[in-house]
Design a protein that fits this description.
Layout (H helix, E strand, L loop, with lengths): L1 H14 L6 H15 L9 H22 L4 H17 L4 H13 L2 H19 L2 H12 L5 H16 L2 H19 L3 H18 L4 H9 L4 H26 L8 H13 L9 H11 L4 H16 L7 H10 L8 H7 L8 H19 L2 H10 L5 H19 L2 H18 L4 H13 L9 H10 L3 H4 L4 H16 L9
Length: 494
């Protein structure tokens, strides 16, 4: 299975440079292929794999929840426990170290992309893009339906750019600033941002995860998107209704705060019509299938160039801002708090955690823990309901154990493709499950790639926004429910 997965990943990564798959997809697939080629040095008994999994998840999750600490140390502690287990089982430390190094090295593509996202945020601030988006939001968005509006708008932007993380880091940051002015719960707003961004990422034909899910099981891209509507539309409607219900009432909105923020943003001198050009550049380049890194870089350069129309910055000022982020010094505490962010250095927390999590993932593969769990799951597949449920739980489990969105899609797709055929289900049912329980679940895990990034970008912990990320919570529930009932499942022609 590992050999097949490697061939698939390598082949697809090579062609992505010339088509719809973009550089981001290429980088992601290449790093996942590294994890998939890590050799299993022993066949871990199932009961040991279960106990170790409980230990790892319990250590990390318990530390974050009860002690309210950053995940770095709990992940290191879990890694240490796994190393001790490996030594106890007679596995050479160098072998385990090699697995961890392979796991960490698989994250370098993401690291490179995160650098550019950090630069994008700081450049969009000095270019006026984020301040202008905030100002327009205060001017045109009704506070009464604020949460629902955040959800819908981020969903539209997510579909347009095909990237959940880019949506969160740009439009999401602007909405969070507005929420501060309106005194709306930040975890609720973050939940609406995550819900909309991952709805857009899931349903966009430009999305790397959407393309990967369809291509991996041999389903037409638009047929895959159409079939996802059976679970996505109900999840979207329910989520929108919940955010309408939770949105603050008109008399609960401190309108004087909103006016004060508008005046404060205007006073910065960064609110201009031309400040929206970097956003338009981002959308246009995405539709032209330009690589993600190049798209982010060009949009950042345009924003920096526009900043000279309203700011007097030296070359050293620009470089320092790109590294350390923009520091607002208006004298208004609230405005300064909103606009002081971004920069390459702001991504270091995220990058460090991603590398730690992936190194632990490499160790889990080396010890054969992931493989042992998958083998056991595959022995239980006898009918359509069990196949759908098992594949959904596998995608969720990989997200929880490894924290890797793409690996959850790849492992689930390759592990269950034959089983779907055996029980008479078309492959598009599997690609839907991979998205419902793989793509959108990743931001709900505090030590996952997406969860780490979002918490850092928005300043809201994963466990704080998790109860309000309704779309990401509903999608796996609906896909399992439809699997158990047989509703919306497409059977193969007899």
């Amino acid at each position: 299975m590992i050999r097949t997965l490697t061939r698939v990943v390598t082949r697809r990564a090579s062609s992505s440079l010339f088509g719809m798959k973009r550089l981001f997809l290429c980088l992601k697939k290449e790093r996942v292929s590294v994890l998939l080629t890590i050799q299993e040095v022993r066949k871990t008994p199932f009961w040991e794999a279960v106990l170790l999994s409980i230990l790892v998840v319990g250590t990390i999750g318990g530390s974050i929840y009860f002690f309210e600490v950053a995940p770095h140390i709990p992940i290191l502690l879990s890694t240490f426990f796994l190393i001790l287990y490996g030594l106890f089982r007679g596995i050479d430390y160098k072998t385990m170290e090699h697995g961890m190094v392979q796991g960490a090295s698989s994250g370098m593509g993401a690291v490179f992309l995160f650098f550019f996202i950090g630069i994008l945020v700081s450049s969009w601030i000095i270019g006026g893009t984020i301040p202008t988006l905030m100002y327009l939001g205060f001017s045109f968005i009704s506070p009464t339906f604020f949460l629902a509006t955040v959800f819908v708008v981020t969903g539209i932007i997510g579909i347009s750019v095909g990237s959940s993380l880019t949506t969160v880091a740009t439009v999401g940051v602007a909405f969070l600033g507005m929420a501060t002015a309106l005194d709306v719960s930040l975890p609720m707003v973050a939940g609406a941002i995550v819900s909309g961004a991952f709805f857009g990422d899931k349903m966009s034909p430009l999305s790397d995860t959407t393309n990967l899910s369809a291509s991996l099981v041999g389903v037409d891209l638009f047929e895959h998107i159409k079939n996802m509507s059976w679970t996505t539309v109900p999840a979207f409607i329910i989520t929108g209704g919940l955010f309408m219900w939770l949105s603050p009432k008109a008399d609960a909105i401190p309108m004087e705060n909103m006016q004060s923020f508008k005046e404060g943003l205007l006073a910065t001198g960064m609110v201009h019509w031309y400040a929206l050009i970097p956003l338009l550049v981002l959308i246009v380049l995405t539709f032209r299938k330009t690589s993600a890194v190049l798209t982010l870089a060009i949009s950042s350069v345009v924003a920096i160039a526009l900043s000279y129309l309203h700011m007097n910055l030296s070359a050293s000022d620009v470089m320092n801002i790109m590294f350390g982020g923009f520091v607002s010094e208006t004298g208004q505490e609230a405005i300064d708090a909103l606009l002081t962010r971004g920069g390459l250095n702001s991504m270091m927390f995220t990058i460090g955690l991603v590398l730690l999590a992936l190194s632990m993932g490499g160790l889990l593969f080396t010890l054969g823990i992931v493989q042992s769990l998958l083998r056991k799951v595959q022995h239980m597949l006898t009918k359509a309901s069990s196949v759908v449920t098992a594949s959904a739980l596998t995608a969720i489990g990989v997200n929880v154990f490894i924290g890797e969105q793409y690996l959850s899609i790849l492992l689930t797709g390759q592990s269950f493709k034959e089983h779907y055929a055996k029980v008479g289900l078309e492959a598009k049912n599997l690609s839907r499950v991979m998205e419902d329980a793989g793509t959108v679940v990743n931001p709900l895990v505090p030590w996952s790639v997406c969860g780490i990034f979002i918490a850092d970008a928005l300043g809201v912990p994963v466990l704080a926004y998790l109860p309000f990320a309704f779309f990401s919570l509903l999608s796996p529930v609906l896909t399992i429910l439809f699997g158990l009932t047989g509703k919306t499942l497409t059977k193969t022609a007899k």
